[in-house]
Amino acid sequence: MEISLNINGQPFKEDVEPRTLLVHFIRENAQLTGTHIGCETTICGACTVLLDGRAVKSCTLLAAQARGKRVTTIEGLLEKGELHPIQKAFWEEHGLQCGYCTPGMILAAHQLLQQNPHPSEAEIRHGIEGNLCRCTGYQHIVKAIQSAAAKMSPPRSASAAR
Amino acid sequence: MAQQYIGQSVKRTEDPRLITGLGHYVDDMKLHDMHYVAFVRSIHGHARIRSVDISAALQMPGVVRIFTGEDCRSIGSIPCAGALEGLKVPAHPVLALEKVRYVGEPIVAVVATSLYLARDAAEAVTVDYQSLPAVVDLERAASADSPRIHEEFSDNIAYTWALTGGDLDQAFKEADKVIKQRMVHQRLIPVAMEPRAVIARFLPGEHELTLWSSTQIPHLMRTQVAIMLGLAENHVRVITPEVGGGFGSKLNVYGEEAALGFISMQLHKPVKWAETRRENFAATIHGRGQIGDLEVAIKKDGRVTGIRYKVWADLGAYHQLLTPAIPTLTGLMLTGSYRIPAARMDVTGVFTNKMATDAYRGAGRPEATYVIERVMDLVAQELSMDPVDVRRVNFPAKKDFPFATATGLTYDSGNYDAPLKKALKLAEYKKWRREQQKARKKGRYIGIGLSTYVEICAMGPSPAMPAGGWESATVRIEPTGKVTVLTGASPHGQGQETSFAQIAADMLGVTIEDIRVLHGDTGVVQYGIGTFGSRATAVGGTAVYRAIEKLLQKGTLLAAHLLQAPKKEIQFEGGKFSIKGDASKSISLQEMALASYTAKNLPVNFEPGLSSTYYFEPKNFTFPFGTHICVVELDGDTGEIKILKYVAVDDCGKVINPLLVDGQIHGGIAQGLGQALMEEAVYDESGQLITGTLMDYAIPRANDLPWFELDRTVTPSPVNPLGVKGVGEAGTIGSTPALVNAVVDALQPFGVKHIDMPLRPEKIWKLLQKEAQ
Description:
The structure holds 2 protein chains of 2 kinds. Chain A is of the alpha+beta class. Helices cover 35% and strands 14% of the residues of chain A. Chain A has a 5-stranded mixed β-sheet with strand order 2-1-5-3-4, with helices on both faces. At the A-B interface, helix 2, helix 3, helix 4 and helix 5 of A face helix 1 and helix 17 of B.
């Protein structure tokens, strides 16, 4: 079947098997391999992408379910060639080791900060519980998200003062 | 050497590609005309294969060829390097022949033009099994009347091994008390986030096989796969791109690697196989899996004078690379960080109808640390002493180092009271003891647990390592002055591209941007051993250090010639060779490199070029140590364990990059707590793996873990010039007993002495209910 969707601002029109998973469409048809496959069962979150701005696990969605929608993958997070503040924070705070969970983790953090620009530590831990990391023990990831939050939007007290 | 980088929290140079999704793991690569492999695997724990019918599968679209065990008979056995006396080594074919011996054992390899079509066809293969009684329970497996897993052997006992030191009879004769306890170290599943993956490409013209594999040991794999396939080793190349975590599970040579190579050689096409998570659970090595009976001789003042530990080790159905060797590491570290004059460990390694156990983060040492740290708390409970005091009574003093243990090791350096003291302060130990008393009066259960661990790292001196324990480095100054470092210690997330560049940059007086660290390609890098056993920096980093020393000696000769001064008057500082006391005459590394390659004006008999290679052989292991303190509160209604505080003060010798060291500690603690709290690989009585997915096998999520408060003490190792000890496994080794000790401590009012892991809420809840009645 023919599937059209938009990935990172680029239109893709491909003839694929109806059963093609979104993650395979992204990796094989769009040749964007930053979206990783960790479990094929929606548990680990390595395959997390944004679908019309919402974080979804692309290993258990059909590409057909994304027809006509906007997909953002880790490759699409750069803004004018510059690292997104969350990417930068993961680098600065050593929020990754092997890097396999990282693209999904960054996109999960992206959604979290969209919904809650000033999350507490507990809210961050809750917000990324659908993404597994086996290397970091999560602490540097939490720090990275805290640091990105502070840079992306001014603290509550400051905005109140304005 | 000016230390601009060493000791600094330098941001990792590998990260820009990883945070943008531009790194390449094996499954990210696609070769022209590549075919895909799917394996048909055993659904039985133990069965005879009556027949395999591939006829329907062969008719499926896209199917190129199907390989059975018969087709692969020419491939050598999957290797085992653990050479123990009297070890039974069963044949371990890459595809099962007459029998299957664990769920997940590969039987058939299907090759098709796409991944989906390969998996479709694999579904259409029919295997007719005659199911056999599965051997699951460890002690029953060891008994004489158990069904046999390998008919060629008289029983399921793969080996027995003992380590003994000191006078145990005397220790037990003179003991004031003897403590007995059974302890279980449950089977664990490593769960690296990237499952294994292999691409094989055989070029018939060059007669060259290239394997891209997610492994910790590219060179050892090249050697072993060449042997298995009967290829000349110099016609096999192993490339290890990004590796998404290993934790020991990729310190191995698996059947799939040789099978893919073989298939590519048959088809003259590149072939890929990327493991599914389910395959990863069933058919990538597991860890731990020991049951041990303990007897401890103690004196009234808290001194432990002797330990006997009799262990059954669950090896699984076959040996993987280091399977039988892992429990021996438990024996070596049995006396922990204590002056215990007599110890004996007896291991019975037992075949069971399960996946092989092998090196999983810590590999045998977490078992030892768990045992000895539980012992310290059992002694404290028995004698009504503070667990801190029991530990202090048994510590060797700082002046006792190098310290010889009853198990035959010499601990390189140590000062065990220093991290203990720091951790007690950081954790507010005394305050928590008071809180605990107050809480108990209110019916709340707070517990405080300690672990004052020591571990054996920087593996290791070659006599103790099956394939050699050295590591290699080449440091090359390119004609433009850029520096290339080739390391044999192929990393899988540790950050050696950064930490090794820090070492090289400081020694050469260049920036880390001028350095490129290459690894994981046997076609590019000189032979190396790999990254495991907390060895990369202590052994591989030292190889870089020594290679640069050697390079600078050569540079000094050329500088003396070019600057027209005697060799002894040449100094190297800030990236420049100059004449001592005469700053006006100098030559930069870059100028020197160019001069050495263009070779117009070289000293007599001077070899052109500016590079050097060093193979560093350590004279001993290193022994990092530290104190972890965990404070927990148990929820009386739900049995949940809430971690109120977690403090870790580790001493891994000198530190190259504090940020990376902290990351290793955090991740290590998370895995250790995973074992203590939730992880357990479970096979049912028929040998089915019932924890075969991430739904059934829990690993810690972000909200399962507390904030870890870290600090350090620094006791340099005398084993290497960098003074580093290694840190990859410390967190895992130190944390598990700290948590369990805390929970048992919380349950002290009920007289609970020991609980086996994992400490899931229902276990705690049941205990609390029972005690409440």
